[in-house]
């Protein structure tokens, strides 16, 4: 499958990048890679997800459990689907396509905040697979999960800044979006996002504002755009 090859190529590149980042100990926090690989006649699983070492153990254990619980549940769902489909295909006298599950992740942290976006790809039959991005964003001091609004001082109009950037980027490539981008109505407090060294990246899942062929749409807003509105020191 062409998409699978592209996904695996991207995985390799990001893992090379991650190896450099994960090998560094930043503020006594280190993110390591945990792998799960299984290959049967019904499914192939090559999953890599982040585990935090160091910091406040009670807090990092809680974050690790959240990530691991989601990942293992996702894998289990694909396995169960494989068993279910296997019976249906056998009854129909047809050969079942092998289920596939792959994942990759990135990591960014400061002494107060950690952001771990994980991309989960699954193929369960049909014309193509589906990728879902899940971002684990936490305050390392309190263990609180950070929504987008939690990054900013009370009363700061971060939505206006982000909306402006998203609309500008959509306008440059309107043909990639449903209704030329008309589905985007603005970000909300539960907007999906992650952080890296350069800025805040808000994103939209496949089919959310654009067709499958356009992939997950991401929009980066440099930290400098928010000036004094940020609660945390995130940029250089």
From TrEMBL:
Residue span(s) of domain Deacetylase PdaC: 36-131
Listed InterPro entries: DUF3298, PdaC, PdaC/RsiV-like_sf
Domain DUF3298: 149-223
Entry keywords, A to Z: Signal
Signal peptide: 1-23
Any Pfam family the entry gives: DUF3298
Designated name of the protein: DUF3298 domain-containing protein
Organism name: Clostridium perfringens
